[in-house]
Amino acid sequence: MADKVTPPSDLTSTLNLRQLRSIPGSIASDELYKSLSSEQQSIVTALKEGVGILLVLKGAGIGGRYLLDSSETKIGRDLNNEICLDDITVSRSHALISRTEEGYSVKDLGSLNGTYLNAISVRDSKILNGDEIQIGKYHLTLFIGGK
Q: Can you tell me whether residue 17 is helix, strand or coil?
C-alpha cells in the first residue's frame, strides 16, 4: 500500500514591497516651479526659450543641475558621458536625452536597472516640462525655458 501524502495546510509566500513604486500624480508646472528654491527659480527663469535643464530635486545628487543645450545628451556612469552619474545603480551608458524642434525625449540604452519617466519604466518616450526621469538613484526633473 502506498503512503498517503498530506498537503501542507499552511502555505506562505514572500512579497518584496521594496520593489513597488508609487506613481505620482501630475503636478502643475507652476506649482512645481513655486516649490523650487529662489536660486533654482532664477536658473529656470533665465533659460532661453525651448532650452531644457535637469534639476535633481530629490534622491542621490540633490541640488545637481544639467543644462540640455545640445541635440543629444548621453547619461551614464562612464566619464565619457555628457552627464556622469557616479553610482553603481547607473549603467555605464544608461540613457540618451534628445532635443528636436518638437521637444525632448529620453531613450533607455539597454541599462540594467531601466529608465523611469514619472515612475513608469520606459524605453523611448517624449518628456515634457515638469516630468521626472529616474536613472538609478537619481531623480532628475525637466524644466524648459519659456514654459
A: helix
Residue 118 identity (one-letter amino acid): N
Q: Which backbone phi and psi does 74 adopt, to 5 degrees?
A: -90, 135
pTM: 0.80
97: closest CA among 36, 42, 138? 138
Show the beta-strand stretches assigned E in 28-71.
52-59, 65-68
pLDDT in tens, 27-65: 566 788 899 999 999 999 999 999 999 999 988 899 999
Of the candidates 103, 146, 147, the residue with the CA atom closest to the CA atom of residue 127: 103
Closest CA to 112 of 96, 93, 97: 93
Angle, CA 59 vertex, CA 21 and CA 53 arms, to 5°: 105
